[in-house]
Amino acid sequence: MISLADWAFGRLDATPVWRRLAAAHVNYSVDEVRRPAWNIDFYSTALPGERPGPPEPGGPWEHACRLVRDYEFSPPEIVRALYDPAAPLLGRDMLLEARFHGMHFYCGVRVTDVVDETRDRTDRVWGWAYETLEGHLERGKVTYEVVKRQETGEVLFVVSCHSQGAPTLDPITSLGWRLFGRRTQLRFYRRCAERLRLFVQATLHGEHPLPGPPSTVGHLVCAPSDARMHRLDAVAIHRVAPG
Fold it and tell me: What is the distance between the terminal CA atoms of the chain, rounded to a whole angstrom?
């Protein structure tokens, strides 16, 4: 379990926090997931399409899969991630930095599922899912998938999620979550879809939608690639493992 659970000011060295994720466990059981205590969400967004048939080499489906694999779709003003790109995708630990105005919350997730299949004999699907670890603001699982409907050529970005605020939050953080958490969560999903669609469109037009390789911290990368430090980050309030 992550042992740090206090407030910090100024810049934070997140690398030791990421290392502690290896000893953390998923913080819920799927047997607990049921309405109305849990939010169960499903979002489907159309991306640029292709001709019917298998995914085209260098086409929208392939570009979208690459961006989803590297967590480039995440809006850096809301959520950033620190992870080891050399680690296999399945089982990868990611330290998420959730940013809310002048406060940064550091929470761990682990990739527990990778999807690579033809579904219902027609839909080509690739994606992955992460689940929340001990200390996370939330409990639950998010699955990100890129789907090509081979009969029509449609390409979709699909997000499915079950979640709730962690019941172990302290009273102040719990109040903040009730007031702003759900609203921020829904904005995150919307921005993810907007970014992925724009990035795929730009790539197809020969543009480079991202500024270059992601920032690195030792052997770790910070995703997405357009995540940058700001002057106000020097006076930000950090909360590690708030749940």
Answer: 11
- Indicate the pTM of the whole model: 0.92
> Whole-angstrom Cα distance, residue 26 to residue 38?
16
Is the Cβ–Cβ distance between 147 and 175 less than 8 Å?
Answer: no
| pLDDT the model gives residue 166 | 87
HEC secondary structure over the chain: CCCCCCEEECCCCCHHHHHHHHHCCECCCHHHCCCCCCEEEEEEEEECCCCCCCCCCCCHHHHHHHHHHCCCCCCCCCEEEEECCCCCCCCCEEEEEEEECCEEEEEEEEEEEEEEEEECCCEEEEEEEEEEECCCCEEEEEEEEEEEECCCCEEEEEEEEEEEECCCCCHHHHHHHHHHHHHHHHHHHHHHHHHHHHHHHHHHCCCCCCCCCCEEECCEEEECCCCCCCHHHHHCEEEECCC
Q: Distance between CA 46 and CA 28 in Å, rounded?
A: 32
Dump pLDDT digits (tens) for 60-117: 999 999 999 999 999 999 999 999 999 999 999 999 999 887 788 999 999 999 999 9
